[in-house]
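Hi,

Apologies if this is the wrong queue. I'm a grad student, and the batch job for Dihydrolipoamide dehydrogenase from Agarivorans albus MKT 106 produced an output file that my downstream script rejects. I'm not sure whether the problem is my script or the file. Here is the sequence I used:
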Amino acid sequence: MSNSEVKQSVDVAIIGGGTAGLAAYRAAKEHTDSVLMIEAGPYGTTCARVGCMPSKLLIAAAENAHQYEKSAQFGVNLGKPQIDGHAVMQRVKSERDRFVGFVLESVEGIDAQHKLDGYAEFVTENQLSVKHSDGSSTQVEAKRIVIASGSRPAFPAPWAELGDRLLVNDDIFEWDTLPESIAVFGPGVIGLELGQALRRLGVKVLMFGVGGAVGPLTDPTLTDYANTTYAEEFYLDSDAKVELIERSENGVKLRYIDKQGATVETEVDYLVAATGRRPNTDKLGLDKLDIQLDERGVPVADHYTLQTSISHIFIAGDASNQIPLLHEAADQGKIAGDNAGRCKEVRAGLRRTPIAAVFSDPQIAMVGESYRDIEKRLGSCGCFEVGEVSFENQGRSRVMLVNKGIAHLYGEQGTGRFLGAEIIGPNAEHLAHLLAWAHQAKMTVSQMLDMPFYHPVIEEGVRTALRDLNAKLHLGPEMIDACMECGVGS
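Support response: The file is valid. Your script probably expects a header line. Output copied below for reference.
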């Protein structure tokens, strides 16, 4: 140990002070007061600073502008909205800072002796070297360790040559105003939400992907529908052939083959890389440990205990390479922290039904098992069925002029068990919650149909899909006329 290195011993060390790290800290503290949370960057969580909250602020502004434009279809002529980019971004940043402030207040309430600023790296299975910004370091000896180091945006290395014309979603929320044009690479959750929102706020948007995927959808029918629907609003090629990306004097020059086969050259102000996130585990010194890693170099952990192949090391949140969502990070952090605090009495924690939402328009939602996972597990034996509803003629959806989308619900032959759903459509975020509760309760499709449905509501579309699914599972009558079965416009 060098002269500038301090030594500290604790029961539990937590690497990371984001959503998972904070949850782990609170859970570990229930069992021991000897807990240390190590954080290298600013506190405030990915969600509050650069993720779910600022993106929803931008989307809220975009939805307001879109409703203004759409009003003429109701016979209410308001004309074209005037977008004040400065005002839009001022509100986004102001409210973002407010949300971050709430997190910081919580962190400030943690005893200073339980926090350590710096970059942690494993020396041995029980030792961490924490390097501080002033060049000094602290050696931390911990009986149990929770890795909750989060993730960061990832993009192809050559794009770094674009300099300040290359943006990740973090950068967008520092804008003072809106640009004239952007190219978004990656029509996943982040790219789709931000790209559509910026388009509705007057920014020219080009969106490119690889492999044809849109959002988290895995069902081919819904993926095709999503590709067609979003492309009506902005240029979207989810399986693009881009031949050139290079820095120009005033932005980024692109050359690509469009969907008609023609070569197009254009220039945009910025390239937005929405090509995924990478777990922050590559600089933790894991190579010094005899720990089982997956193909991305992330420690493999038990789904229910978050325990890695080294019994006293746990991993949680975005760093775990499981489901990079705030509610999942909080759940994982709680489980990992609780088990780290318990010492040797490791317990299985509650893992809830998977649920995810994309706040695009129409929205996308995923519940339970995805189509891809069900097809892989049950497809060879034909042991599952798909119930469908289209929202295009669904009564309440048409009334509100949000009648775009399809929902697919999946059920198991024999048991009648509801397996999961993929949705693109109106109010998908709310429909997903109803379905997630049913899935977690292990309900059958017939039991779900026994639940009450009001009229006229968008939720009636779920009943239509359930009736269709129940018939295909040979557990109920075939639907002959939806209006006779469920009521007008259901």
